[in-house]
Amino acid sequence: MLPTVAWKNNTVVMIDQRKLPGKEIYFKCKNYKEVVYCIKTLAVRGAPAIGVSAAYGVALAAVKAKAKEKIKFFNEMAYAIAELRASRPTAVNLFWALDRMTAKLISIENMPVEKIKKELLKEANLIEKQDIAINTKMAKNGAKLFKKGETIMTICNTGVLAAAGVGTAFGVLNEAHKQGKKINVVACETRPLLQGSRLTAWELKRAGIPFRLITDNMSCYIMSKGFIKGVIAGADRITANGDTANKIGTYMLAVLAKNFKIPFYICAPKSTIDLKLNSGKLIPIEERKSTEVTELHGVKTAPKGIKVYNPAFDVTPNELIAGIITEAGVVRPPYLKNLKKIF
Ligand code: MRU
Predict the structure, then answer these.
(1) Are 171 and 115 members of one domain?
(2) Do residues 290 and 166 both lie within one domain?
(3) Spatial separation of the C-alpha atoms in residues 109 and 90, rounded to whole Å
(4) Residues with Cβ < 8 Å from 160, sequence gap 6 or more?
(5) How many domains does the chain have?
(6) In angstroms, what is the span from residue 95 Cα to ligand 1's centroid?
(7) What CA–CA distance (Å, rounded) separates 191 from 118?
(8) Is the pLDDT of residue 198 over 80?
């Protein structure tokens, strides 16, 4: 398998996650608009992977820009960055990466256009490399939280497919497994788009981590049996007070975990922490199209013409979170005070 997102011969190549687990097909983005398309349609998804893709999207816009004159080149770049910004609203890594690429662009504005192009590509490469290193650190920090033989529940896909390295929550599980802790994983299928069954089960199987797949509505019963010793999820945006937006269904698991006195952890890089927002109530929650709920792989599973709700994320209140695993260590409550300390 190639990396989830890679720069290759002036294109951005991504494994098309819409086709997994059935087919391992790579989508070659020849221009930034195709990167926007891939992010919107979830060919690439997962907060850190979206950030890396957006950074390469900016590099691609620069490399493929027609303008030779600086002012026109900057105009082209502004359009591209604006389109990339509008691709998805919740994962703050998208905006973090675009802000970083914009800051780079501004810092080198006096250079010749051809040199700027090279520098933007270097910056995107650096974002990818740093994400790989951050993933490894988070995995090591998080693995310490779990003991030998424990069974841990997770949701959505937070692995290799969701980041440049080994992932966030999945990285922790993978590290615990590699350390010989003999952990077991319970993976929630994650309706409506099945990131859990299509992607996480695929990754767990490839990594050789013992696991069982469940449908989301089995989580309460399974937790009530007493053998789940922890729940771990990724994040799309964490506000200054620790409120955490993640895949729809995460909040439900956190409430259940509290009920059964199971520790509930979030694992995310610092680039997912949005200190500009004080509360999860301010996080924009993406609403996706109704057919994601009324169809499964194009087959209708509900009557025609009905109305549905399809929020792609929910927000877990900070008081339900036992710890936030980051590359800088495990942050514990009170989050308002302790999250600031790692910046
Ligand atoms: O809609 P998606 O598939 O992009 O949602 C992904 C998630 O919610 C992940 O749990 C989150 O991005 C953290 S992963 C590294």
Answers:
(1) no
(2) yes
(3) 30
(4) 1, 4, 166, 167, 170, 203
(5) 2
(6) 15
(7) 41
(8) yes
pTM: 0.97
pLDDT grade for 88, boundaries at 50, 70 and 90? very high
Are 297 and 197 members of one domain? yes
Q: Taking 80 as the threshold, does the pLDDT of residue 1 lie above it? A: no
Token pair for residue 328?
A: 């800088």
> Percentage of residues in the chain with pLDDT exceeding 90?
99
Q: Which mutation among 5, 153, 236 tests ligand 1's pocket best, with the greatest number of atoms within 8 A of CB?
A: 236
pLDDT at 3: 86
Domain final position from 136, 158, 189: 136
Q: In which band, very low, low, confident or very high, does the pLDDT at 152 lie, cut at 50, 70 and 90?
A: very high
CA of residue 161 to ligand 1 center, whole Å:
10
111 and 145 housed in the same domain: no
Q: Which tokens belong to 19?
A: 């086709």
Residues of the domain holding 41: 5-136
CATH of the domain at 113: 1.20.120.420
Residues 221, 199: one domain?
yes
Quote the CA–CA distance of 53 and 4 in Å, as a whole number: 9
- Tell how far the Cα of 225 is from the centroid of ligand 1, in angstroms: 28
Output the residue whose Cα is nearest ligand 1's atom 14.
Answer: 158
| Residue carrying structure tokens 């997962």 | 46
Residues with CB under 6 A from ligand 1: 45-48, 91, 156, 158, 162-163, 167-168, 195, 234-236, 246-247, 312
Q: Which of 117, 136, 155 is the last residue of a domain?
A: 136
